[in-house]
Amino acid sequence: MDNRVLPQPEKFASCPYDEKILDFYKGQFDSVFVLLHPFFYPRKSNIDRVFPEHCPSKLEIIATCESVSWKRIIELTELSSFAQIDVGLRTSIHGLKKEIANEDYASRLIELTEKENIIRPSEGQLPPLLENRIFEAIKVLGHEWLWVGDEFGTERKLHWIDDLIKNDLIPVHGCVFTHDHSLLVTTHWDSHCSFLCSSKETIEKILQLEDFEGFYCTESTEVYWGVYEAL
């Protein structure tokens, strides 16, 4: 019998799945910043263009849509925390077991599309409205190339950063990491956030360049962080 077992993917190019985030990256990265995927509002295009059957390109979304922060979503929905938004988003995609899902949170977020034309972020992929901002910040740090890999660590390709900015080359659930393995951006397949992994010093430099909405992981932060904070 031919048993083919994949080797464990390298930590500098992979994503945790259901565990404490800092524990997963121990020995590779000392800090992880949770990048919240923004909601967005289509300024110029019809809202129907945003849905899968008429999915716009990355550059079209950047040109025609405006980010809506999670802080603003709290104001609009009267939810009380990022954790409740996280649970609502996961519930809306049936990503949580019934006993920890919250249909009320999900309904409030769904109503934003119906009433305000505010679109919920997609799960499992680095959103267009963050992607190029991250790439530009990484360029400022002195990097010119980035590896782009799949979620399993089985395929990767080296790209010039300017090519990544001009094109849509990041796969769903993909990982983006520097050649020296000092920085990683990865997205858990069932989450509406990405993990920016590096040293605290490097992450702080990026946050000085771009005011990304999010928070640092603590020793207790898990992949399904909103569930534990909302309970």
Give a nutshell description of this structure:
This protein is of the alpha+beta class and 231 residues long. The protein has helices at residues 21-25, 58-64, 70-77, 82-92, 103-116, 128-140, 161-166, 200-209, 225-230; strands at residues 31-36, 39-42, 65-68, 145-149, 156-160, 175-177, 184-186, 193-198, 214-216.
List keywords for this structure.
231 residues; alpha+beta; seven-stranded antiparallel β-sheet; two-stranded antiparallel ribbon; 9 helices; 9 strands; 17% strand
Structural description of this entry:
The chain has a seven-stranded antiparallel beta sheet with strand order 5-4-6-7-8-1-9. The mean pLDDT is 92. It folds into two domains: 123 residues, no CATH class; 78 residues, no CATH class. It has 231 residues and is an alpha+beta fold. It is built from nine helices and nine strands. The radius of gyration is 18 Å and the shape is globular. Strand 4 and strand 5 form a beta hairpin. The N and C termini lie far apart (46 Å). Helix 4 crosses helix 5.
Q: Which helices and strands appear, and what pairs or packs with what?
A:
Blueprint (H helix, E strand, L loop, with lengths): L20 H5 L5 E6 L2 E4 L15 H7 E4 L1 H8 L4 H11 L10 H14 L11 H13 L4 E5 L6 E5 H6 L8 E3 L6 E3 L6 E6 L1 H10 L4 E3 L8 H6 L1
Antiparallel strand pairs: 1-8, 1-9, 2-3, 4-5, 4-6, 6-7, 7-8
N-end to C-end Cα span: 46 Å
- Which structural category do the helix and sheet elements fall into? alpha+beta
Give the oligomeric state.
Answer: single chain
Q: What's the structural domain tally?
A: 2
In terms of per-residue confidence, which ranges show pLDDT below 50 for 5 or more consecutive residues?
none
Q: Report the sheet with the most strands, covering strand number, pairing sense and barrel closure.
A: 7 strands, antiparallel
Question: Nearest-angstrom radius of gyration?
Answer: 18 Å
- Counted by DSSP, the helix tally is 9
Side-by-side strand order of the widest sheet: 5-4-6-7-8-1-9
H/E element order? HEEHEHHHHEEHEEEHEH
**Per DSSP, what share of the residues sits in E-state strands of 2 or more residues?**
15-25%
Q: Name the shape in a single word.
A: globular
State the helical fraction. 25-40%
**Average predicted local confidence, pLDDT:** 92
Total beta-strand segments? 9
